[in-house]
Design brief:
The protein is of the alpha/beta class. The protein has helices at about 5-15, 25-30, 50-65, 95-115, 130, 135-145, 150-155, 155-165, 170-175, 175-190, 205-215, 255-260, 270-275, 280-290, 295-310, 315-330, 345, 350-360, 365-375, and strands at about 20, 35-40, 70-75, 125, 195-200, 220-225, 240, 245, 340, 350, 375-380, 380-385, 390, 400-405, 410-415. The termini are far apart. The structure holds one RNA strand of 82 nucleotides.
Length: about 425
RNA sequence: GGGGGAAUGUCCCGAGCGGCAAAGGGGGCGGACUGUAAAUCCGCUGGCUAUGCCUUCGUAGGUUCGAGUCCUACUUCCCCCA
C-alpha cells in the first residue's frame, strides 16, 4: 500500500508518521466517508507528557485538520494498573490522588494542539476511569475476559522482554492489555470511534481491542501506529541528562525545549521537520537540503516551530532570541533560566560547588567537583579552577546576576533577592 | 513434590581467593576538534560539613577483628527429575 486517497492518511504518509496500519485499504476508504472518530490514550503516570507522546498528538491534530473528530483518552482507570509493555520492571503503583493531579496537569497541553468543543469535529476529552472503575469483576470476566487467550497474550513482544529478563509480571499488570482492549470497544459504543492510534509499542495492545470488537460482535475497528522516533545515531529520542523532554513548561522550560531541538543532528533535520512541524513539505525539503553550517538555520526553524506548537509562538520567539544573544553575540541574555538565591546566602560568600548544585546544573557537589577538574564549569564565562572559590556580591554583573555555565550549552542565572 | 543454579555499583550488561567504593564494557556527562551537528581522541561516571566519615552487591538474620564473597530463612527467576 503506497498511495492513499483519503486526506488524512495521505498527510500522515507524506510526513512519515505511519509505521503500521491494520487494514490500510479499509481505513483509507473509511476516512473518505465523512467525519470519523479516532482516539489516542495517554497514561497519567507523570505530571506531563513528553515528546514521544507529541507524535501521536500530532496525528490527532492532522486528523482534526482533515475533517475528523479526535478523542484524547486520559488513562484515569488504566493508570491504576500500569502498562507493562516493553518494560523490564514493574511500575510503582500510583495513588488515586497522584493520578488525578497528573491528569489535570497533562490536559493543559492538549488544548494548545487540539480544538475542543461540541461541534462535529471538535475534540473530546474522555477518561477511562468513567467506565473501568465501575466494572463488576465477575461480570467483566464473563463478558470480556472469555475472549482473551492467555496463550496468545503471552506471545506478544510487549511482554517478552519481561519474561526473557526473568522478571515477574504480576497479574495486575497482565490485565492492562485487556483493559485497553475494552476501552476501544467502549469508545466505539459511546462515540462511534473506529480508529485507535499510538506509538509502535502499542500495536499489540491496540490489536487486542480490534480483536475484541470482532469477538463481541462489534464493528470493524482499525489500528494505526507511528514509528518509534530515534535519532540518526540510534539513540531513543527525548532523553537528556536530566530525564525526559517534557511538554509542560513547569517541568521543562520552553528555553530548554527549544535548545533540545536546536541540537538536532544534521541527518535528522528533515525528518523531524516533517514529523513535528506543520510547515509545507516543499519548504521542508528546501530547509533540509541546506548544506554545511547553513543547516543551522534549518535547526533554528525546527526548534522555533515545535516550541511554538507546544508553548505558543511568543515563548518560542523568546527562546530563540535568548539563544541568539547567548550563543551568537556571547552577550548576557537576562531571560536565561534564572534561579533565585536569598541575599543572605551570597553575602557571606557562597561556595562555587554548592552554587552550581543550587542552580540545578549538577546533581551533587561531588559531580560539581569532578566537573571543575574537567574544566566544565564557568562563572560569568570564566572557567572555574578552584573548587573552594566563593561567590560573593562582587561577582554580580551589571544586571545584578551571576551567570553559571555547565559545559558549552547549559546556562543558569543566579539572582540574589 | 525432589534436585541443581542465578540475583552485583537505583541506566544496562558483567567480573569479583573473606580486607572492596568493588575489574571491564555499553550508555551518559565534561574537554579538544567543529557549525550549539555527526565522527574521532582524552577525562570523568556512589554521597557528604572530605587527608576523614556515611551508604551500596535481591530481602532478613547469623558466623567473623572484618562479608559482595561463608551459613540459615525468605522473595523472584532459570534448568533437570517426577
Amino acid at each position: 500500500m503506497t498511495t492513499y486517497t483519503s486526506d488524512f492518511l495521505r498527510v500522515l504518509d507524506e510526513r512519515g508518521l505511519i509505521h503500521q496500519v491494520s487494514d490500510p485499504e479499509g481505513l483509507d476508504a473509511l476516512c473518505r466517508q465523512g467525519t470519523q472518530t479516532a482516539y489516542v490514550g495517554y497514561d497519567a503516570t507523570a505530571t506531563s507528557i513528553h515528546i514521544g507522546n507529541l507524535i501521536s498528538l500530532t496525528m490527532l491534530y492532522w486528523f482534526q485538520e482533515t475533517g475528523h473528530r479526535p478523542i484524547t483518552l486520559m488513562g484515569g482507570g488504566t493508570s491504576m494498573v500500569g502498562d507493562p509493555s516493553f518494560r523490564d520492571d514493574q511500575r510503582k503503583l500510583l495513588t488515586v490522588e497522584e493520578i488525578a493531579t497528573n491528569i489535570e496537569s497533562i490536559k493543559r497541553v492538549f488544548s494548545r494542539i487540539l480544538r475542543y468543543g461540541d461541534g462535529p469535529t471538535d475534540a473530546i476529552m474522555a477518561n477511562n476511569a468513567d467506565w473501568l472503575l465501575k466494572l463488576n469483576y465477575v461480570a467483566f470476566l464473563r463478558e470480556v475476559g472469555r475472549h482473551f487467550s492467555v496463550n496468545r497474550m503471552l506471545s506478544f513482544d510487549s511482554v517478552k522482554l519481561r519474561l526473557d529478563r526473568e522478571q515477574s509480571l504480576s497479574f495486575l499488570e497482565f490485565n492492562y492489555m485487556i483493559m485497553q482492549g475494552y476501552d476501544f470497544v467502549e469508545l466505539n459504543r459511546r462515540y462511534g470511534c473506529r480508529l485507535q492510534m499510538g506509538g509502535s509499542d502499542q500495536w499489540g495492545n491496540i490489536i487486542n481491542g480490534v480483536d475484541l470488537s470482532h469477538r463481541m460482535g462489534g464493528p470493524q475497528l482499525y489500528c494505526l501506529t507511528t514509528p518509534l522516533l530515534t535519532t540518526a545515531s540510534g539513540a531513543k529520542m527525548g532523553k537528556t541528562a536530566n530525564g525526559a523532554v517534557w511538554l509542560n513548561a513547569d517541568v521543562f522550560s520552553p528555553y530548554d525545549f527549544w535548545q533540545y531541538f536546536r541540537n538536532t543532528e544534521d541527518a535528522d533535520v528533515g525528518r523531524f521537520l516533517k514529523v513535528f512541524t506543520r510547515l509545507p513539505l516543499d519548504e521542508i525539503a528546501r530547509l533540509a537540503a541546506l548544506g554545511g553550517s547553513e543547516i543551522n538555520e534549518a535547526k533554528k526553524v525546527l526548534a522555533t516551530e515545535i516550541t511554538a506548537i507546544v508553548h505558543g509562538r511568543e515563548a518560542a520567539e523568546a527562546a530563540a532570541e535568548t539563544a541568539r544573544k547567548t550563543f551568537e553575540e556571547g552577550a548576557l541574555a537576562t531571560d536565561l533560566p534564572t534561579v533565585a538565591v536569598p541575599r543572605g546566602e551570597i553575602e557571606p560568600g557562597l561556595g562555587v560547588l554548592s552554587a552550581f548544585v543550587k542552580a540545578g546544573l549538577v546533581p551533587s557537589t561531588g559531580e560539581a567537583r569532578r566537573q571543575v577538574k574537567a574544566g566544565g564549569l564557568r562563572v560569568n564565562d570564566a572557567v572555574v579552577t578552584d573548587e573552594r572559590a566563593l561567590l560573593g556580591l562582587g561577582d554580580l554583573t551589571s544586571d545584578g546576576v551571576v551567570k553559571l555555565s555547565f559545559g558549552k550549552k547549559k546556562h543558569v542565572l543566579l539572582r540574589p533577592e
